[in-house]
Structure formats: C-alpha cells, structure tokens
Amino acid sequence: MGWGGIKNGKLLERAAGNFDVLFTVDRDFAGLGDQVAQPIGVVILQVGSTDFEALLPHMDAVNAAVAQVGPGEVLRIGG
C-alpha cells in the first residue's frame, strides 16, 4: 500500500480508515498498552522473528485473535 516507513501512530490512523484489524510482528508495537485511540483492533505476534517457519506455528492463534479483537483493543500472542 506504499506505507513503508510510516511510524506507529500514523500507521494506526491510516489502517483504521481501511481495515478492522492491524496484524503485525513489529517489535515497536509491543510497547502499546492494552488499548489504542483508533477504531481498529491490533494483534501483535511476538515471536522474535519474521521468518515464515517461525510464524507458521502461530497462525491458528493469530486467526483466533483477529476474530476476537475489538475496536481499540490490543492483543498479544507469544513472547
């Protein structure tokens, strides 16, 4: 979407205007509290890697979290 380099706050604003949930493995998002001031759910997978093989075992938990998270909520998986 051409959003590379956009920082967390602006990224949340843009994503909230286009999506219901933001899923990320970005460690910079780990410092978020349990709530965000945007009408979007955030799911953070904290496994310390972006390698496909490291992420794959967590996809069932990711799918469940994406289905569960509500607007303004932050859910963390792993770590």
Structure report:
The chain is an alpha/beta fold. Helices cover 29% and strands 16% of the residues. The chain contains 3 helices and 3 strands. The protein has helices at residues 8-16, 52-55, 59-68; strands spanning 21-24, 41-45, 74-77. The protein has a 3-stranded parallel β-sheet with strand order 1-2-3, sandwiched between helices. 18% of the residues are buried. The mean pLDDT is 90.
Give a quick set of tags describing it.
alpha/beta, single chain
The strand line-up of the biggest sheet is: 1-2-3
N→C terminal distance: 28 Å
Task: Give me the oligomer status.
Answer: single chain
Number of strands: 3
Number of helices: 3
* H/E series: HEEHHE
- Residue ranges: pLDDT <50 for 5 or more in a row? none
Tell me the fraction of residues in β-strands, as a range.
Answer: 15-25%
Tell me, rounded to a whole number, the average pLDDT. Answer: 90
The SS-based structural class is: alpha/beta
Sheet of most strands: 3 strands, parallel
Query: What gyration radius follows from the Cα positions, in whole Å?
Result: 12 Å
Global morphology? globular
Instruction: Summarize the amount of helix as a percent range.
Output: 25-40%
SSE inventory with pairings:
Layout: H1 8-16, E1 21-24, E2 41-45, H2 52-55, H3 59-68, E3 74-77
Parallel strand pairs: 1-2, 2-3
Précis, in short:
This protein has 79 residues and is α/β, with parallel strands linked by helices. The protein is built from 3 helices and 3 strands; from the N terminus they run H-E-E-H-H-E.
